[in-house]
Specification:
The chain has about 260 residues and is an all-alpha fold. It is about 80% helix and about 0% strand. α3 runs antiparallel to α8, α5 crosses α6 and α7 runs antiparallel to α8. It folds into two domains: about 40 residues; about 210 residues, Orthogonal Bundle (MetI-like fold), CATH 1.10.3720.10.
Length: about 260
């Protein structure tokens, strides 16, 4: 039995090593072939024509996300902390429905309402994106705090820690992983939703996307869609790295 098991392990190891060795060359060949096709078909040269537009509009896009996402973090985390306090927990789910409106109502409708209240431009776009982005941060902040282990809280009280010390040294560190997960989700939503801000005069990469759709110009549309997707991936990756190093080792399941 042991001999057969060792044989199976050896076969599995050989197959794994073979595929591992072939994976990188295969990816490189596939990338080369895809790049060659994109260049020969005129797709890449067409995208290159929009490089200045992409650079300018990407900065505008990042500014929108930074303002809306930053405000969502500044408001969402304190709101989640407040709802997680014992005095408000019995009504927290009802109050969360207020923040849920930004997700329940279609984002385009939120932006339209913002435009009707604040006019056209960057300000209503930031307000609309802020409303649409805030729920994951509030929800995760609340969920992370109320999920802290009861015995852990009792132990902290038994050690003579004050409520302020318990919050900063026990509750918040233990909830930080869940809170960061909400921030990552919210920022990814914000990056993907920000192109709609072009429709109310705020600019951003949506200018290329919606103009390309209107003109039936696939290259122009992808010149806006592809950088938006790349920005979303980069944002999530950066926040993932921040989450990895900011959350304490004993609490972060990714660092065990």
């Amino acid at each position: 039995m042991n001999r057969h098991a060792n044989t199976l392990r050896w076969i599995y190891g050989m197959i794994t090593a073979t595929f591992s060795g072939l994976f990188r060359p295969t990816c490189l060949v596939a990338a080369f072939l895809l790049g060659s096709w994109a260049w020969a078909s005129g797709f890449l040269p067409g995208l290159w024509l929009y490089q200045e537009d992409i650079s300018y509009l990407a900065v505008k896009h990042i500014e929108l996300v930074a303002w809306a996402g930053g405000l969502a973090i500044l408001v969402g985390i304190p709101a989640g902390i407040l709802l997680a306090r014992p005095q408000l927990r019995h009504v927290a789910e009802y109050l969360l429905q207020i923040f849920n409106l930004g997700t329940t109502i279609p984002t385009l409708a939120v932006l339209a309402l913002s435009m009707s209240l604040l006019g056209i431009g960057i300000l209503p776009a930031i307000f609309g994106l802020w409303v649409a982005t805030m729920l994951p941060i509030v929800r995760n902040s609340y969920t992370g705090l109320v999920s802290v282990s009861g015995p852990l809280m009792e132990t902290a009280r038994g050690m003579g820690m004050t409520p302020r010390q318990i919050f900063w040294q026990v509750e918040l560190p233990n909830a930080s992983f869940v809170i960061f997960a909400g921030i990552r989700t919210a920022l990814a939503i914000c990056v993907g939703t920000a192109p709609l801000a072009f429709l109310i005069g705020a600019g951003g990469l949506g200018e290329l996307i919606f103009t390309g759709i209107a003109l039936n110009d696939l290259t122009m549309m992808i010149a806006g869609a592809l950088p938006t997707a790349i920005l979303a991936v980069i944002t999530d990756f950066v926040m993932g790295r921040v989450q990895f190093f900011a959350v304490p080792r004993g609490i972060n399941p990714l660092r065990h």
